[in-house]
Amino acid sequence: MPAHGCHPRAPHKKLHIPDWYVSSLMLDRALDAILRRVKKLDRSHDVPYLAGYSQDGQTIYIDRHLPPTMTYKGRKVEVDRYLIMHEEVEKTLIDQLGLHYLHAHQIATRAEEAAVRAEGILWRDYDRFMQKYVKHIGDERLTKVPADLDLKPYRDEHDFELIQRMQKGLTKRGLRKGEDAAALRAGVAQYAANMKTERRERAAAKGRQVRTTKEK
Q: Which residue of 46, 47, 111, 194 lies most exposed, with the fewest beta carbons within 10 A?
């Protein structure tokens, strides 16, 4: 995890503007506060779309192939902090407010973008760097998937093909001591079965809608 404290040289310096004003410094402090609350950061696995979180929210996963820093205009920028914030915000909105993944993801992305811009980085440059390391559905590098990765984002995206691909990557090489690969595969299989059922139900509902429209 990035070893940023809360601005150790001047951690409690009073801002000379009201707290409700938009402030890059205040946003940076808020980001530091989120980072301090992360229980565990794991960078030893393959994670689709760069980052994710454990089912219990205690671990943030960042893909092992993503460099921890990007070079931007001659300086090194740590990227983990922005991904951690995104995942923490997203997970909290889903678990605490019951938001659908797509809604939580949109809010988390906006927060991530604001933090990146506050660092003086153009979002398009940051995103271009990230996209080079994204693992998609057919990526052969998906061989070491976290055992307790929360699959809700992929399920809500109806990303059945990706879950199938991840299922193939659930081998003992990707497990920590004491984790059961068979139980994990069974869990993923259940997700896949539920997605198949949901697809059939959506198709049936669409068929009924078409028939009703024709009858009118």
A: 194
